[in-house]
Amino acid sequence: MSSHILVVEDEADLADALAFALEREGFRGTVARDGRSAIDVISQTPPPDLVLLDLMLPDISGTEVCRQLRANPTTRHVPVIMVTARAEEIDRVVGFEVGADDYVVKPYSTRELVLRVRAVLRRRESSAPIDVTALRFGVLTVDKDAHKVWVEDAEVALTALEQRLLHTLLERRGRVQTRETLLSDVWGITADITTRTVDTHVKRLREKLGAAGSYVETVRGAGYRFRAQPEVVG
Ligand code: CA
């Protein structure tokens, strides 16, 4: 079955052109013209496979839509690509901070956008269930299949991107991961994203992990490393 991509865009010609382009690429493309109707569509069962979310909407902003999606357990894991006319780096960070999986700046080429859609969907598939058992590491428990993370028995709400970052570091624990490696393996594509983005997200992930945050170590001049053992020996 073809993936359902929801295009959230108030400019009718842009939205229709994009939905058409997605259909031509074998996706099912639907359109929502404002934030509230987007949330309604995304809250349906099953939710869309991916949301292309314009930042500037007539009712509530794209970042607010994203925030609401991430706050709701049933829509938390729906991938979001933020689309905006504002190119400033700070906006990119804000987009990621509210849980967007990727970020595209207008004017974009349809081809680029479709590539990014495919990249996000592919990342989603490659993180599909492999091992059913939850992994315990010190005070941290990670159930990759259920997309759940606990620290000292309290569940921690992570964005899809933060989960991928955590899984990637955890699976390679004891080994240093450079920012470039993380960008390539967690974000999937490297265009338009700086290594500083990695730092921002590691910082945020650490904060959310609380008592388990120190498991993610900074290796100066190299990158990041998930500790090999929960406790520091010696
Ligand atoms: Ca708009």
Number of domains: 2
The CATH topology of the largest domain comes to: Rossmann fold
- The CATH homologous superfamily of the largest domain corresponds to Response regulator
Radius of gyration: 18 Å
- Arrangement of strands in the largest sheet: 2-1-3-4-5
Please, what is the oligomeric state?
A: single chain
Summarize the topology.
Elements: E1 4-8, H1 12-24, E2 28-32, H2 35-42, E3 50-54, H3 62-71, E4 80-84, H4 89-97, E5 102-105, H5 110-126, E6 135-137, E7 140-143, E8 148-151, E9 154-156, H6 160-171, E10 177-178, H7 179-187, H8 195-209, E11 216-219, E12 223-226
Parallel strand pairs: 1-2, 1-3, 3-4, 4-5
Antiparallel strand pairs: 6-7, 7-8, 8-9, 10-12, 11-12
The structure holds calcium ion (CA).
Descriptive key words:
234 residues; alpha/beta; Rossmann fold; Arc Repressor Mutant, subunit A; 2 domains; 5-stranded parallel sheet; 4-stranded antiparallel sheet; 12 strands; 40% helix; binds calcium ion
